[in-house]
Every structure is written in structure tokens, then in C-alpha cells.
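[agent] plan:
  1. take the single chain provided in the ticket
  2. run structure prediction with default settings
  3. attach C-alpha cells to the ticket
  4. add a short note for the reviewer (M.T.)
[agent] executing step 1
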Amino acid sequence: MDKKGFISISVIYTLFILFIVLLLSILVGFINTRILLKIAKGDTNEILVDSEDNRQIGIVCKSQPMGACFSSYSNLDYTLVLHDGNLDYATEDHVDYEAGDDAYRYSGGSPFNYVCFGTDTSPCPENNLYRIISITDNKIKIIKDKPLGTKQQWNNTAKNYFPESFIYTYLNGTFLDTFDTTWQQKIANSTWNIGGLSDSHALTGSAKDAYNYEYGDNKTDSTYNAKVGLMNLTDYFYAASPEHWTKNGNNYSSAKNDNWLAGNEEYLLTKFNGVSADSGVTNETQVYKIMSNGQVSKANVMDSFNIRPCFVLYYQVSLVSGIGSKDDPFIIN
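[agent] step 2 finished; step 3 output follows
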């Protein structure tokens, strides 16, 4: 073959490769355009979300009230689970154990639910990283990604009533004051359920048992109003992927790798509301905690453990940018 013939074949081959690349680019653009048109029309039922890419919700909800938009487009993120008694992707067994309260909760080992709070610095400092636990009535509940630097006693007296605890005073005083007025106004004053649970619902019951006795029809009516608190046991149970919701607190270590809230030994807001086996009277010296292996356990209120501040964002907070990853968290106004 002469040199001219060789050059001609090479040129033809190169042009063919360029044609294939161009064709694929056009096809991808066409698919993305269809998705965006469906989103613009509010029709997301036919949008298939790749299990490896749950980032579209951040793009769709940019410049919109965050809670309302995330609730409307939750099907763009497979880890944002609606507890409405109809989990389409789960088995019937999982549906039986969900909360059924129409709240949206992030579940699984590594959802894209990071939020930058308390600063406009870019990139977001690690100390300002929070994560979304749930969305209820368009209100977003978030928790600090890492525990505070110093472990805290619940109290120095035998009392597990949270509004009288050291932690309550610290979170709603010293901690809250680390934010300037602009950021404090983004935190809603909220009602926190503190009736507590017995061991039969916290340690040997399922996620649904904990929910029923912490929030549902069987709860003990005891609440307080404040801006900052801690996550409760219901938050922790439902942060695991659905296949673990049938398990009890004693066995939740097996869910550690599938639960983004696991990994720290830390206090929960949920107190022990039961009778001491020794004295036969109500025990007010214990609260529940998460162990570092993911198991749920009890702690004495005078012991010191990690705490992670938790609070609800004001409902009109809007999304500025971000996809919710640790490197590109949701930025709010």
C-alpha cells in the first residue's frame, strides 16, 4: 500500500471516530433535554435516577425554597425516602416498618445530604458541615456532621429531663452564640418530643416501635420548645437503609455500614422512661446513646459522651447551589 492510500484510510478512520463521538454527544444532550423538559412541566414520574447519581435534586431546586422543592422532587434522589406507607422500591416487609408520617428521611450509608451552615466561606470548612436528617411539612432538620470537640455530661445530678440538662444550656447558649444574628434567624424555634422510651421499644423493638412511642399515638406527652437539641432514636433508626428497619436497637450494629448517622459514641435526645428492675420505681438517671459500633445502649446522665447539635431550618430557607456531596454541599441563603 502506498503512502497516499495509508493516509486516506487513517483520515477516514479518524472521521468515523469523530462522527461516533458527535452522535453520542447529541444523544446524551437529547436525553438530558427531555429530562429537563419533564422537570419544567412538573412531570418526574418517568425520570429514571441512576443509583450512582442522586445529584439532580440540587440542580432542580436551585433558587427555590429548599424544603418544599425537595419534598416535591424527592424521586430525583433515591436516598430521600417518603414515609407514606407506599415505598415503591422496597418490599412489603419494609413498608410495614416505615413511619407512615409523610415525612421525608435520608436513608443509607452515604446520601448526598450535606449542608454548609454558619458561613459563606468557600469551600465550606469542615466545622460548618451539617447533614439533612428529614423534611417534615417543608421544614428541614439538620445535624452537625462531626461531634463537638469536647465530650459533655448530660447532667451532674440524677435527672434525665433535657431542659434542665447541661447539654440543653450549652446548645441553646454557648453553641447558638457561635452564629451571628443572620444565621441564628435561619434556625426555627421548634417543639421537641422528650417523653422517652422503655427498653422494649428502644432496645428490643423495631424502628416503627420507637416511632410509635416517641412520636405516634403511644407517645408520652412531654415536649419543650427550643432552637437546638439532639437527634432522637427515631432519627437514628430510619437513617439506616430499609432492610434494617425490622431490627432492634440491640442488633443495630449490623446496620452500621448502611446508616450514615452511625459511627460515633454519642448521646441521643431520647431518655429512658422505664422502671428500674431493682427498685421498681421510675429511673430518671439514664438516657439512650449510640455506641461507636452502631448499637443502641443506655448511659448514666453523669457520664460524658459526644454530642452533635441538631436543629430545624426556617421553612423559607432557599437553595443557592451545590449537589449535597461533602465536597459540594448544599449552600443556602
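[agent] step 4 note for reviewer: The first strand starts at residue 80 and ends at 82.
[agent] ticket updated
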